[in-house]
Amino acid sequence: MIRLLNVSTMPPGTGQPILKNLTLTVPQGEFRWLLGPSGAGKSSLLRLLTLETPPSAGQMEILGISIGRGASKGTSRAALRNLRRRIGFVPQDYRLIGDWTVFDNVALPLRLRGASERDTRREAFAVLEWLDVAHLADKRPGSLSGGEQQRAAIARALIGRPELLLADEPTNALEDAQARRLLGTFQELVDMGTTVIVATHNEALVREAPARSIIVRDGTLTADPQIQDSFAIRPSGEQS
Amino acid sequence: MSAPVSPGLRSGSLPLLVALMTLLAGLALAGLTGVQTLARSWASAARNDTTIEIASDTPRLEERLQSLAEALHKVPSVTAVRVLSPSQVQTLLAPWLGNGSSDTGSQKDPLPGLSLPVVLIVAHAGTSDLGALVHATLPEAIVEEDRRWGTRLNGLGSSLVACAWLAVGLIVAIAVISIGMTVRRSVMAQRKAVEIVHFLGAGDLTISSTIAGRAGLLSFSGAITGLVFLSPVLSILARKLAPFSHSYATTIHTEAKGLLAGFWTTLDVLPQGLLEQLASLPLIAACLGWMTAQTVVLVWLRRLP
Questions:
Q1: Contact assignment for A81 to B200 by CB distance below 8 Å
Q2: Which stretches are transmembrane (chain B) (predicted)?
Q3: DSSP characters for B126-168?
């Protein structure tokens, strides 16, 4: 469950809030598209939900943990650390560690949770194989194409089945078939109780998998013009 | 290789920096040991003796000398009165006047044209002010309390030891600051990677321990390198200073031996305490590197939400 109540964020040193007075509830195990024009505040909202940016005003609750103004001031660092381990995030810029292999990047969330190396290896290769990048496990991210890096970032977010999955334009470097496959995975995660929020500009993708949307404009939320009650992937070629 | 859960420390300059600091610290410790040895020898030399000098042309010298000796023996704290022989006086004054042996061929003869004074050494328990008593009998006598020189030498020795400790402390402080700056530079260079693992849920201690472990290892290897470079310097210094040392009976004979053999002989001559201190430098450097890196990284991580 995600609950925001009058939340604003203001980056340090700037007098202007990026997100203004957001009030939002996303129940556990639901899917939301995060839509809006460029610069509207979609990535800022995702950074707020991944606890990278603390709220400057208001209250929010993520997966049962209340977070107040200043984030770490209201909640202990240990609680924030444990909360971050329950969240999977696919950043727009992938954020892979360049000195590490793809395998080590993908395995990191499980290692941080203290999983055994055997389980980590098994799960990491399972998700890498599913995303068709297992053969790149020993490569450094710098030697991969944009699409391969994106798949590695997706693998890192999916490993260990997070309770909350946030993705920022996760399909912009993927082929259509891969994008549809990824949406199928999101569906499976939602079915297993994961809350999934995906920011995208890909209107075709949204049309293919209609669902309730969070629409951001100028740092504020606007009403969802076309509320959908379900999240379902339509067969290829079918138009909404 | 263990599975990575945090970026490590990337710094090529840290081992070099620690090696240089180890070199300096080793030299400071060697200096400290030398000064401590000197101060101890000064302290032991500072006896409670009084030296009385009487010019040889003093009227009725024999008779008045006899009276003085009797008067001194009556003082309860005086334990012994000894009149130095002319040869002993000459030996005593040799540093200032020369012993004349090269000129005259005889050590027993006083220097030509020079009349040696009569010198009395009075040993006492340390509380007597003998000056008044001596001057009552022999106003011309010069009375010198060795104790006063002893106190001055003790003070000088303590000051030199304090200066040497200060030098060691300054080197440690500079090492800590330098390691801290190097670690901080490395963290800033890997800022993106550190932020990634932080936002994926890595604990502050997990990140700081990974970096600190590497810093400790690099500091240890740097200190070992520093010791390797320090050894020949100490070896050369020990050889140069050996003739001045009264504490160690061992004489260094390196002329007929190779450099390596000479080096080991020199190590044998160095005081045990100094060798132990030098051997502990890599461990101390590793601990300093580890603790400094931990502190720097933990403080830096506090700025992340």
A1: no
A2: 164-183, 217-238, 279-301
A3: S---HHHHHHHH-TT-EEEEHHHHHHHHHHHHHHHHHHHHHHH
**Is residue B123 classed exposed, middle or buried when 0-12, 13-18 and 19+ CB atoms within 10 A define those classes?**
middle
Closest CA relative to residue A172, chosen from A83, A91, A57: A91
Q: What average pLDDT does this structure show over B166-175?
A: 92
Strands B118-124 and B78-83: antiparallel
The answer to whether B167 touches B28, Cβ cutoff 8 Å, is yes
Q: Is residue A3 domain-shared with residue A65, that is, in the same domain?
A: yes
Is there a single domain that holds both residue A4 and residue A106? no
> Could you report the per-residue pLDDT of A8-35, keeping only the tens digit for each?
998 777 778 889 999 999 999 999 999 9
Residue A237 to chain B, least CA–CA distance (Å): 37
- For residue A38, give how far its alpha carbon lies from the nearest alpha carbon of chain B (Å): 24
Q: Which two tokens stand for residue A86?
A: 């329950």
Whether residue A109 and residue B201 make contact (CB cut-off 8 A), yes or no, is yes
What value of ipTM does the predicted structure carry?
0.86
What span, in angstroms and rounded, lies between the C-alpha atoms of B194 and A41? Answer: 25
Contacts with A82 from chain B: Cβ below 8 Å:
201
**pLDDT value at residue B248:** 47
Q: Let me know whether A238 and A123 are in one domain.
A: no
Q: What's the rounded Cα separation, in Å, for the pair B74 and B59? A: 24
Q: Does B299 touch chain A (CB under 8 A)?
A: no
Counted across chains A and B, CB pairs separated by less than 8 A come out at: 57
